[in-house]
Amino acid sequence: MKKAIVPGTYPPEEGCFLRGNDNSPVAVAVILKWRRDKTPPEIEALVRAGIESGAALSGTLQTENVGLEKVICNIIANPNIRYLVVCGPESPGHLTGECIGNLMKNGVDDKKRIIGTKSPAPYLANIPVEWIERFRQQITHVDLINEGDPEVVRNAVWSCYQEEPVDFRGYRLYDPGAFDGEPIVGTITWKITGPYHPPENEKEKAAVEKMQKMIETLKARGQKRS
């Protein structure tokens, strides 16, 4: 079975994840709807279940924009990863799990907005469209949103490892070998940090809008200089 050699700079983006077997065909993303410093033990257990079962990467994912962009960057840097298992309770503020499903089905529009999602800020503005399409071609999305049983995650990862296809929750899973393409190693070009949670009142909403306008102004100035 064909396996790719991962570059020395893999994974290119930092985040709250664990690194496991680089030859593994599967990564696990556990949706995190809480503040990171208040991560419940059951969410940590799902992350551990993923990595202990043999995932290449297993970690938490909060946002439908910058967080998802980091996931994309890390996965396309390793052609051996062919599945993304998404689990944990859906985020009511970000709809991150729903957003991933629509990205895989529909892609993005000319503004790099994920098509079909009801998520509030589903823009992948910090990475090239080519990277997004590579992610969609390389990955099969295994949707386990609102699933919180570590044993189910273990079974999903195990299924992705098999040489012959096996049935799992309506999916036919097996290890097809590395994606036929060189690793794409890159990082997001403009890091918009936060807010990880929807504003809780009008004061917070106004502060967020002011921050976003300032970011766009600075970004525009940088583009004019380049």
Query: Percent range for helical residues?
Result: 25-40%
Give Rg in angstroms.
17 Å
Number of strands: 7
Elements, N to C (H/E): EEHEHEHHEHEEH
Span from first to last CA?
45 Å
Principal-axis shape: globular
Low-confidence stretches: 193-199
Mean pLDDT: 89
The total tally of domains equals: 2
**Given the helix and strand composition, which structural class is it?**
alpha/beta
Q: Helix tally?
A: 6
How is the main sheet built? 5 strands, mixed
Strand order of the largest sheet: 1-3-2-4-5
* Beta-strand fraction estimate: 5-15%
Descriptive report:
This protein is an alpha/beta fold. The protein has 2 domains: 17-190, no CATH class; 195-226, no CATH class. It contains 6 helices and 7 strands. It has helices spanning 41-52, 66-76, 96-106, 129-138, 150-160, 202-225; strands spanning 17-19, 26-31, 57-61, 83-88, 140-145, 166-168, 171-173. The strands form 2 sheets. A 5-stranded mixed sheet has the order 1-3-2-4-5, sandwiched between helices. It has a two-stranded antiparallel sheet with strand order 6-7. The longest helix is centred in the last third of the chain and has 24 residues, at 202-225. Mean pLDDT is 89; it is low at 193-199.
